[in-house]
Amino acid sequence: MYLKYGNYRHDDSECTVSIRRDAVKSECEVVYQIRERWEIAGRLQVIDQGAAAANQAALTAKINVLKAAYAVHNQNIGFYDDAGKITSHSILSAATLGGVKVMQPPSFPEGSGAEYTTFRNYSLAVEAIFPVGAMGTLLSWAEMVRMWGGGPEYGFLPCLTGPPQKQLLRQATTYKAMQVGMAVGRLIYPVPPGPLWSSDEHIHVREKILEVPPDSSGQRIVRWQYQFESIGPMQGYPTSSPIN
Q1: Domain limit, last residue, from 75, 110, 131
Q2: 143 and 126 in one domain?
Q3: The model's pTM
Q4: What is the pLDDT of residues 165-179, one digit of tens each?
Q5: How far apart are the first and last CA of the chain?
Q6: Which domain, by its residues, includes 77?
């Protein structure tokens, strides 16, 4: 069995691979990605050339090829069986979000003993992210309602001497409210809820903001804001999350 990254083939049984898969959740505990990380440790070896300098030169060449191979991102990686067929331990870069990434380039953590004679130990790591869920899956939802106003309005008149005087400006004021929310979908923008008090809305200041995060997660973010004003109190609650 051997490991292959892109066109680079590791020698048979050259390395060991530890594979870890972790679920990535949204704020609402919806799993929308799987992060898979391969920790690879191996030993490059060359046939004894009969002279130390020749061994070192051959090993240097082999190290340089390894480093060059893992200097390139977005390659397929996988284990192949003895018949040359790919196994279930493989990642096709095209099936991931953003491709296979080399998170730790080839490193050489050991430097004692007979290192760099006819062998050299190395370690490296690659990582990929897989999407989970159908297009349009709702990942996150939040909304809040702010209410204020109503009752009398007072003002304060500064005096030349003595403290300011409190004065009644209006016996009654309007009631105001604001409905603010955010939702996150996978690849499709979620549809915001309608205004809670449509007849009292200041439609000219309604806001709808569409965002794409600075990553390859495929998230689509929508934010909304409605503002209301009424002569009487407004009764209502934030829109419940449609996420089960």
Answers
A1: 131
A2: no
A3: 0.79
A4: 999 999 999 999 999
A5: 44
A6: 2-131
